[in-house]
Automatic annotation (TrEMBL):
SUPFAM superfamilies: Nucleic acid-binding proteins. Gene3D superfamilies: Nucleic acid-binding proteins. The keyword Zinc applies. It holds the Pfam family REPA_OB_2. This is Uncharacterized protein. Residues 122-213 form the Replication protein A OB domain. InterPro entries: NA-bd_OB-fold, REPA_OB_2, RFA1B/D_OB_1st. Residues 15-106 form the Replication protein A 70 kDa DNA-binding subunit B/D first OB fold domain. GO terms for molecular function: DNA binding; zinc ion binding. Belongs to the replication factor A protein 1 family. CDD domains: RPA1_DBD_A, RPA1_DBD_B. Keywords: DNA-binding, Metal-binding, Zinc, Zinc-finger.
Length: 317
């Protein structure tokens, strides 16, 4: 039976189960009992949770080379047992033991996230201050670095996805050495939720990891989304820029969160209606141009036909 990792406990008393998961990491071969025993561990995850899996003895040689970090696999069968929290620091209450009945096959599944607990931007506004977030989005605005209190450098950018936009602050060398362009995809691991002027934002600390255009499935999804809902439309919606004296885009995003779902739907409908109306006007204009060009070409065609007949008659006479 196919399970999500979060529900794998239901296969506790069943040796026939399967999951589709991505490999977050795996250890080298580890020895115990003075080198007599050997094992390796790996962390697997899907969109629901993460779980540790371990192989012992001959199963180390059987499965270690099959699993590659960041690849997705369909994994079937094996022992499911209560996690030993003295050695297992994942959030899952259970763990997997690979045994001789385990089957591991590469999977072409595309619905497995590239990083565990990856959150969309709208989650920022409901998270507790000082907690950490892993997220990814499109850079739609980059501010110049500036000094704060004469001691620190900071740079603000705006990060967006289909759920909203948020301000991200980079500090010191991360601010001065930042090398990306608007439209690039940026992932943040371990960003800190902070608040500025009663608005939540993300602070990239020294321990945070930033990657530009990572080789993730989400990167392609965001690139496609950005093409559909390009920067100009986003900025027109906000009518602001970073550093302006007006309301910042991320403040508008925060106010969106306070609206009811119906209000948000109505607002999006209005945006879509305006875009459709604009495109219809463009198409009407193009249609008018086509009709004018068609009439002009038909007139020229008729004139050439008349000229041709006139020349033929002249030659015959």
């Amino acid at each position: 039976m196919e399970y999500e990792i979060a529900d794998l406990k239901y296969g506790l008393n069943c040796n026939v189960w399967s999951i589709t998961a991505r490999v977050l990491n795996k250890s080298d071969i580890l020895t115990f009992n003075n080198g007599i025993g050997k094992r390796f561990t790996t962390i697997l995850f899907d969109k629901s949770s993460e779980i540790r899996a371990t192989a012992f003895g001959d199963n180390v040689d059987r499965y270690l080379s099959q699993l590659q970090v960041n690849h997705v696999y369909n994994i079937k069968n094996g022992e499911i047992k209560k996690a030993d929290k003295a050695y297992n620091n994942t959030k899952h209450d259970y763990e997997i033991i690979f045994n001789s009945s385990t089957i591991i096959e590469r999977s072409g599944a595309t619905n497995i996230p590239s990083y565990p607990q990856l959150k969309t931007i709208e989650n920022v506004f409901s998270m507790v201050l000082n907690t950490l977030i892993d997220t990814i989005g499109v850079i739609i605005k980059i501010d110049e670095p500036k000094e704060k209190n004469g001691r620190h450098k900071l740079r603000n950018i705006i990060l967006a996805d289909s759920t909203g936009s948020v301000a991200v602050t980079l500090w010191d060398t991360k601010a001065t050495d930042f090398n990306a362009n608007e439209g690039d995809i940026m992932s943040i691991k371990g960003g800190k939720i902070i608040e500025y002027k009663n608005v939540k934002k993300i602070s990239v600390t020294l321990s945070s990891k930033v990657e530009i255009n990572p080789c993730w499935n989400e990167t392609l999804d965001l690139q496609n989304w950005y093409k559909e809902f390009e920067k100009k439309k986003l900025l027109n919606l906000s009518q602001v820029s970073v550093g302006s004296q007006e309301l910042h885009m991320f403040e508008i995003s925060q106010s969106f969160r306070n609206k009811t779902e119906y209000e948000r739907i109505l607002q999006q409908n209005k945006i879509d209606e305006d875009l459709i109306s604009k495109r219809l006007l463009e198409l009407n204009d193009e249609e008018h141009k086509i009709k004018t060009e068609r009439a002009d070409l038909n007139f020229k065609k008729q004139r050439l036909s008349i000229e041709r007949e006139s020349i033929k008659n002249h030659l015959e006479n």
